[in-house]
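Notes continue from the previous slide.

Worked example: a multi-chain complex. Inputs as given:
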Amino acid sequence: MLWKDKYELGDSLIDTQHKELFQRVETFMGTLRSADSWEDKVQHVNETLEFMKGYVVEHFRDEEVYQKSIDYPGYEAHKQIHLDMVNYVLQVSDEYERSGFDEKMMQQFGGKLLAWLINHVASEDQRIADYAIKRKEQAND
Amino acid sequence: MTDNHLYSPFVAATRNVFQLMLDLSDVSDRSVENFECDNELNISIGVIGDLTGEVIYRFPDATSLNMVKIMSNMEMDVVDDFVTSAISEIANIISGNALTILSEGDLTCDILPPALVVHDDNKEYAMRTNCCISTSEGDVCLEICLNPTIVN
Protein backbone atom coordinates (compact mmCIF):
# COMPACT_ATOMS: atom_id res chain seq x y z
CA MET A 1 0.00 0.00 0.00
CA LEU A 2 1.35 3.42 -0.95
CA TRP A 3 -0.45 5.30 1.79
CA LYS A 4 1.33 5.85 5.10
CA ASP A 5 -0.22 7.05 8.35
CA LYS A 6 2.46 9.74 8.64
CA TYR A 7 0.77 11.51 5.70
CA GLU A 8 -2.36 12.28 7.76
CA LEU A 9 -3.18 15.96 8.17
CA GLY A 10 -5.84 15.64 10.84
CA ASP A 11 -8.79 16.79 8.72
CA SER A 12 -11.03 13.82 7.96
CA LEU A 13 -12.22 15.01 4.52
CA ILE A 14 -8.70 15.81 3.28
CA ASP A 15 -7.24 12.61 4.73
CA THR A 16 -9.98 10.53 3.10
CA GLN A 17 -9.34 12.23 -0.24
CA HIS A 18 -5.58 11.71 0.08
CA LYS A 19 -6.10 8.01 0.77
CA GLU A 20 -8.40 7.77 -2.25
CA LEU A 21 -5.82 9.58 -4.38
CA PHE A 22 -3.03 7.23 -3.29
CA GLN A 23 -5.29 4.25 -3.93
CA ARG A 24 -6.08 5.49 -7.43
CA VAL A 25 -2.43 6.18 -8.22
CA GLU A 26 -1.57 2.69 -6.96
CA THR A 27 -4.22 1.15 -9.25
CA PHE A 28 -3.02 3.34 -12.11
CA MET A 29 0.58 2.16 -11.59
CA GLY A 30 -0.51 -1.46 -11.26
CA THR A 31 -2.11 -1.28 -14.69
CA LEU A 32 0.66 0.81 -16.21
CA ARG A 33 3.39 -1.54 -14.99
CA SER A 34 1.61 -4.85 -15.64
CA ALA A 35 3.12 -7.33 -18.10
CA ASP A 36 0.07 -7.06 -20.37
CA SER A 37 0.54 -5.58 -23.80
CA TRP A 38 -0.14 -1.84 -24.19
CA GLU A 39 -3.15 -2.63 -26.39
CA ASP A 40 -4.66 -4.70 -23.59
CA LYS A 41 -4.19 -2.11 -20.85
CA VAL A 42 -4.53 1.22 -22.64
CA GLN A 43 -8.28 1.45 -22.08
CA HIS A 44 -7.95 0.89 -18.33
CA VAL A 45 -5.08 3.41 -18.17
CA ASN A 46 -7.22 5.97 -20.01
CA GLU A 47 -10.20 5.45 -17.70
CA THR A 48 -8.03 5.90 -14.59
CA LEU A 49 -6.42 8.99 -16.10
CA GLU A 50 -9.83 10.52 -16.80
CA PHE A 51 -10.98 9.85 -13.24
CA MET A 52 -7.82 11.37 -11.77
CA LYS A 53 -8.11 14.54 -13.84
CA GLY A 54 -11.47 15.23 -12.24
CA TYR A 55 -10.57 13.96 -8.79
CA VAL A 56 -7.34 15.94 -8.50
CA VAL A 57 -9.17 19.20 -9.28
CA GLU A 58 -11.93 18.37 -6.75
CA HIS A 59 -9.42 17.43 -4.05
CA PHE A 60 -7.22 20.50 -4.59
CA ARG A 61 -10.31 22.72 -4.35
CA ASP A 62 -11.43 21.09 -1.08
CA GLU A 63 -7.94 21.29 0.36
CA GLU A 64 -7.74 24.99 -0.50
CA VAL A 65 -11.10 25.58 1.22
CA TYR A 66 -9.67 23.85 4.31
CA GLN A 67 -6.54 26.03 4.18
CA LYS A 68 -8.69 29.16 4.00
CA SER A 69 -10.79 27.99 6.94
CA ILE A 70 -7.71 27.87 9.17
CA ASP A 71 -6.12 31.05 7.71
CA TYR A 72 -3.13 29.09 6.46
CA PRO A 73 -0.43 31.68 5.62
CA GLY A 74 1.00 29.58 2.78
CA TYR A 75 -2.36 29.47 1.00
CA GLU A 76 -1.40 31.45 -2.12
CA ALA A 77 1.87 29.59 -2.69
CA HIS A 78 0.18 26.23 -2.14
CA LYS A 79 -2.62 27.16 -4.51
CA GLN A 80 -0.03 27.96 -7.17
CA ILE A 81 1.58 24.52 -6.71
CA HIS A 82 -1.86 22.94 -7.22
CA LEU A 83 -2.50 25.06 -10.30
CA ASP A 84 0.87 24.15 -11.81
CA MET A 85 0.14 20.44 -11.29
CA VAL A 86 -3.36 20.69 -12.77
CA ASN A 87 -1.94 22.46 -15.81
CA TYR A 88 0.75 19.79 -16.14
CA VAL A 89 -1.83 16.97 -15.96
CA LEU A 90 -4.05 18.67 -18.54
CA GLN A 91 -1.10 19.37 -20.85
CA VAL A 92 0.15 15.77 -20.70
CA SER A 93 -3.36 14.44 -21.14
CA ASP A 94 -3.86 16.62 -24.20
CA GLU A 95 -0.52 15.61 -25.76
CA TYR A 96 -1.20 11.97 -24.91
CA GLU A 97 -4.55 12.03 -26.74
CA ARG A 98 -3.04 13.79 -29.73
CA SER A 99 -0.21 11.21 -29.84
CA GLY A 100 -2.77 8.43 -30.22
CA PHE A 101 -2.17 7.18 -26.63
CA ASP A 102 1.60 6.84 -26.67
CA GLU A 103 2.83 4.44 -23.95
CA LYS A 104 6.19 6.16 -23.40
CA MET A 105 4.41 9.41 -22.55
CA MET A 106 2.18 7.68 -20.00
CA GLN A 107 5.09 5.79 -18.38
CA GLN A 108 6.90 9.12 -17.94
CA PHE A 109 3.74 10.70 -16.53
CA GLY A 110 3.27 7.80 -14.08
CA GLY A 111 6.81 8.12 -12.72
CA LYS A 112 6.56 11.84 -12.19
CA LEU A 113 3.08 11.62 -10.68
CA LEU A 114 4.26 9.05 -8.13
CA ALA A 115 7.23 11.10 -6.93
CA TRP A 116 5.29 14.38 -7.04
CA LEU A 117 2.38 13.04 -5.01
CA ILE A 118 4.59 11.51 -2.30
CA ASN A 119 6.61 14.69 -1.92
CA HIS A 120 3.57 16.93 -1.99
CA VAL A 121 1.67 15.03 0.69
CA ALA A 122 4.72 14.13 2.82
CA SER A 123 6.24 17.60 2.67
CA GLU A 124 4.07 20.49 1.39
CA ASP A 125 0.81 19.27 2.92
CA GLN A 126 2.46 18.46 6.26
CA ARG A 127 3.19 22.17 6.64
CA ILE A 128 -0.57 22.71 6.73
CA ALA A 129 -0.88 20.08 9.46
CA ASP A 130 1.98 21.65 11.45
CA TYR A 131 0.35 25.07 11.18
CA ALA A 132 -3.08 23.71 12.22
CA ILE A 133 -1.57 22.08 15.32
CA LYS A 134 0.28 25.28 16.27
CA ARG A 135 -2.87 27.32 15.72
CA LYS A 136 -4.88 25.01 17.98
CA GLU A 137 -2.20 25.17 20.69
CA GLN A 138 -2.19 28.98 20.58
CA ALA A 139 -6.00 29.05 20.83
CA ASN A 140 -5.81 26.85 23.93
CA ASP A 141 -3.18 29.05 25.65
CA MET B 1 30.44 32.84 -2.17
CA THR B 2 32.51 29.68 -1.67
CA ASP B 3 31.87 26.19 -2.93
CA ASN B 4 30.95 25.22 0.63
CA HIS B 5 28.03 27.67 0.52
CA LEU B 6 26.65 25.54 -2.31
CA TYR B 7 27.62 22.17 -0.89
CA SER B 8 25.73 22.41 2.40
CA PRO B 9 22.28 23.40 1.03
CA PHE B 10 22.34 20.60 -1.54
CA VAL B 11 23.44 17.98 0.99
CA ALA B 12 20.79 19.18 3.46
CA ALA B 13 18.08 19.18 0.79
CA THR B 14 19.05 15.70 -0.44
CA ARG B 15 19.06 14.30 3.09
CA ASN B 16 15.68 15.87 3.84
CA VAL B 17 14.03 14.65 0.63
CA PHE B 18 15.37 11.11 1.08
CA GLN B 19 14.07 11.07 4.66
CA LEU B 20 10.63 12.43 3.81
CA MET B 21 9.99 10.58 0.56
CA LEU B 22 11.86 7.33 1.08
CA ASP B 23 12.05 7.05 4.88
CA LEU B 24 15.84 6.76 4.67
CA SER B 25 17.40 7.77 7.97
CA ASP B 26 21.00 6.69 7.34
CA VAL B 27 21.92 9.39 4.82
CA SER B 28 25.49 10.70 4.91
CA ASP B 29 27.79 12.65 2.62
CA ARG B 30 31.34 11.85 1.60
CA SER B 31 33.90 12.56 -1.09
CA VAL B 32 33.14 11.37 -4.62
CA GLU B 33 36.57 9.73 -4.87
CA ASN B 34 35.29 6.19 -4.51
CA PHE B 35 32.07 6.75 -6.43
CA GLU B 36 32.10 3.93 -8.95
CA CYS B 37 29.35 2.93 -11.26
CA ASP B 38 29.00 1.26 -14.64
CA ASN B 39 25.49 2.33 -15.55
CA GLU B 40 23.89 5.48 -14.27
CA LEU B 41 21.25 8.10 -14.93
CA ASN B 42 22.76 11.57 -15.34
CA ILE B 43 20.03 14.10 -14.69
CA SER B 44 20.75 17.78 -15.18
CA ILE B 45 18.73 20.46 -13.46
CA GLY B 46 19.47 23.82 -15.04
CA VAL B 47 19.78 26.85 -12.77
CA ILE B 48 18.98 30.43 -13.80
CA GLY B 49 18.88 33.71 -11.89
CA ASP B 50 21.65 35.07 -9.65
CA LEU B 51 23.53 31.86 -10.42
CA THR B 52 23.51 30.07 -13.76
CA GLY B 53 24.63 26.58 -14.61
CA GLU B 54 23.45 23.15 -13.68
CA VAL B 55 23.39 20.51 -11.00
CA ILE B 56 23.95 17.00 -12.29
CA TYR B 57 22.62 14.10 -10.28
CA ARG B 58 24.33 10.79 -11.02
CA PHE B 59 22.09 7.95 -9.95
CA PRO B 60 23.59 4.46 -10.41
CA ASP B 61 20.97 2.11 -11.86
CA ALA B 62 20.81 0.05 -8.66
CA THR B 63 20.09 3.19 -6.61
CA SER B 64 17.37 4.30 -9.04
CA LEU B 65 15.67 0.90 -8.96
CA ASN B 66 15.84 0.63 -5.16
CA MET B 67 14.44 4.12 -4.65
CA VAL B 68 11.55 3.74 -7.10
CA LYS B 69 10.77 0.36 -5.54
CA ILE B 70 10.42 2.07 -2.15
CA MET B 71 8.12 4.74 -3.57
CA SER B 72 5.95 2.45 -5.67
CA ASN B 73 5.97 -0.72 -3.57
CA MET B 74 6.62 -2.55 -6.82
CA GLU B 75 9.57 -4.54 -8.10
CA MET B 76 11.61 -2.60 -10.66
CA ASP B 77 14.03 -4.53 -12.89
CA VAL B 78 14.98 -2.01 -15.55
CA VAL B 79 15.67 1.71 -15.59
CA ASP B 80 12.92 2.52 -18.06
CA ASP B 81 10.84 5.65 -18.79
CA PHE B 82 8.83 5.28 -15.57
CA VAL B 83 11.91 4.93 -13.34
CA THR B 84 13.80 7.71 -15.15
CA SER B 85 10.87 10.08 -14.75
CA ALA B 86 10.40 9.30 -11.05
CA ILE B 87 14.11 9.80 -10.33
CA SER B 88 14.16 13.01 -12.42
CA GLU B 89 11.33 14.35 -10.28
CA ILE B 90 13.32 13.55 -7.11
CA ALA B 91 16.27 15.52 -8.56
CA ASN B 92 13.87 18.34 -9.37
CA ILE B 93 12.49 18.38 -5.81
CA ILE B 94 15.96 18.31 -4.21
CA SER B 95 17.12 21.20 -6.40
CA GLY B 96 14.04 23.29 -5.63
CA ASN B 97 14.52 22.74 -1.90
CA ALA B 98 18.25 23.55 -2.08
CA LEU B 99 17.55 26.82 -3.91
CA THR B 100 14.97 27.68 -1.25
CA ILE B 101 17.73 27.31 1.37
CA LEU B 102 20.07 29.45 -0.79
CA SER B 103 17.37 32.11 -1.12
CA GLU B 104 17.59 32.67 2.65
CA GLY B 105 21.06 34.06 1.87
CA ASP B 106 19.55 36.51 -0.63
CA LEU B 107 20.30 34.48 -3.75
CA THR B 108 17.35 34.28 -6.11
CA CYS B 109 17.46 31.40 -8.55
CA ASP B 110 15.02 29.24 -10.43
CA ILE B 111 15.31 25.77 -11.88
CA LEU B 112 14.67 24.33 -15.32
CA PRO B 113 12.94 20.99 -16.02
CA PRO B 114 15.12 17.87 -15.63
CA ALA B 115 17.06 16.70 -18.67
CA LEU B 116 19.11 13.56 -19.28
CA VAL B 117 22.73 14.42 -20.11
CA VAL B 118 26.06 12.76 -20.70
CA HIS B 119 28.45 13.35 -17.81
CA ASP B 120 31.09 15.91 -18.85
CA ASP B 121 33.85 17.05 -16.48
CA ASN B 122 35.42 19.46 -18.94
CA LYS B 123 33.04 22.43 -18.78
CA GLU B 124 34.41 25.49 -16.99
CA TYR B 125 32.55 26.93 -14.00
CA ALA B 126 33.56 29.53 -11.42
CA MET B 127 31.98 27.46 -8.70
CA ARG B 128 32.26 23.74 -8.96
CA THR B 129 31.84 21.21 -6.21
CA ASN B 130 30.64 17.68 -5.87
CA CYS B 131 29.63 15.21 -3.23
CA CYS B 132 28.51 11.66 -2.83
CA ILE B 133 25.41 10.97 -0.77
CA SER B 134 25.41 7.50 0.76
CA THR B 135 22.26 5.66 1.75
CA SER B 136 21.29 2.08 2.52
CA GLU B 137 19.67 1.95 -0.92
CA GLY B 138 22.78 3.07 -2.77
CA ASP B 139 24.84 6.17 -3.48
CA VAL B 140 24.06 9.30 -5.48
CA CYS B 141 26.64 11.75 -6.76
CA LEU B 142 25.91 15.48 -7.13
CA GLU B 143 27.98 17.70 -9.43
CA ILE B 144 27.20 21.33 -8.68
CA CYS B 145 28.43 23.56 -11.53
CA LEU B 146 27.47 27.23 -11.30
CA ASN B 147 28.59 30.69 -12.38
CA PRO B 148 27.53 33.96 -10.77
CA THR B 149 25.37 35.90 -13.22
CA ILE B 150 27.09 39.08 -14.35
CA VAL B 151 24.73 42.06 -14.60
CA ASN B 152 25.90 44.80 -16.98
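Summary box: The mean pLDDT of chain B is 91. The longest strand of chain B covers residues 138-148.
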